[in-house]
Amino acid sequence: MIRCDARGLLAGWQESGVGGVESSEPLVELRLNDGPELRAGEAFAQWEASLSESYVPLAVDPERDQAFHGWIVRGSMPGFELSTVGASGQRIRRTKSGIAHTDGEFLFVSIITAGFGRMHQDGRIAVVRPGDMVFYDTTRPYHWDLDGSWSQVVARVPLALLGEHVPTDRSALPTAVTVQADSPGGVVAGFFRDLARIQENAPEQATVLAANGVKLLASAITLAGGSVPSGASAQALSRKQVLSFMRARCTDAGLTVDEIARACLVSRRSLYRLFDETGDGLSTVLRRMRVECAQVLLIRDASRSTASIAQASGFASERHFFRAFRVETGMTPGEYRLVTAADSARGEAGRHTA
Description:
By secondary structure, the chain is α+β, with helices and mostly antiparallel strands. It has helices at 40-54, 96-100, 159-162, 184-201, 203-209, 213-225, 231-249, 257-263, 268-276, 282-300, 306-312, 318-329, 333-353; strands at 2-7, 27-33, 59-62, 69-77, 80-87, 90-94, 106-121, 124-128, 133-137, 142-158. It has 2 domains: 2-228, Jelly Rolls (Sandwich); 232-353, Arc Repressor Mutant, subunit A (Orthogonal Bundle).
């Protein structure tokens, strides 16, 4: 199904705006889903075209074996465009070809409101979760990896306008650097998240609030610019980002070194080096993550079979699971379950007699 409409969401729409501030244009809403009217490939092709029209020319690859859905609600604020967008899992790529076919140069600001994503640009990877913010520059290639259903608030700001407020070379912009929700820059992320909500319900009031939006973004960029890593700190951050990706995907039995390296924009050699220098090899870290996942499942569901837990924790077979579990814990899964159950029972008894 496809639906697209433009809507002024406030009765008595006034072109002059409020308090002398130029009024925003009516919001444009687009929704697409797989269904009887559109086959999956057709819906996704229309989605790619809609993303490119709404933002900049983009190439989009769907997540395999997942029903597709997507939506965009966008409008204009003083000095920038503001939208909310969400969809099923996909990779969104900004390619050299897309850059060549773009009129205008922009900085994008994304605030994740649901789901999990990784923004890749300029050799860095920003791992972003709900409440986090990230910047990316449309004049250089980038790509998003968005796993499962997700949503974002997105601001599109002309780089020329931003340059009036940020005294820095474009190459020094803090692209693909996570601005966490609880950081000083997170205050700005919260403002734009709330502004997008107000834009849908009270667009004229949102226009008034947005009057200093570009300056606020410039402040957040200045704060984030101090955290762009280099040298040893860049290596430490890279390892942290690789660990975040592995933790998110460790229960996938098909996860390979090549896939980890590709997702984190590092070579196989660099990937192994990141872990060898800490004393724990890549395979050891992945095994430990899977065993930790299995430990949680063993305690949570005492009746669940070890074969089922092995599969849910990312092990290729029950035999591999038993071997890895004994290496990490010194006991079998069954023994671990008995020991933790006994410890829990003693704790309960102690509380009742205290």
